[in-house]
Amino acid sequence: MKASVSLDMDKLWAFIRSLSLSVNNKRWLAEKLLEDAGTERLAKDDWAAGITGAWKDDGLTAEEEVALLRNARVQGVTRKLVEL
After folding, report:
1. With contact defined as beta carbons under 8 Å apart, do 21 and 29 qualify?
2. In the structure, what pLDDT confidence band is assigned to residue 77 with cuts at 50, 70 and 90?
């Protein structure tokens, strides 16, 4: 379960600076924050991966896909699709 906390960034920065971290500790903290931010960004950017190639494994040709889409649009009304 993820928790969301609203922080005052100035207070957070003041707290981190009050810890008197060594250079190595600061570098470690910075690397961990960047790694976590990169992971979150990848997760957000990865939304398209689920639909990439979604139709490629169904064995239909492009013409068959178009025909399926066109037939799915018909709802028994008098609307006619016009080729452009």
Report:
1. yes
2. low
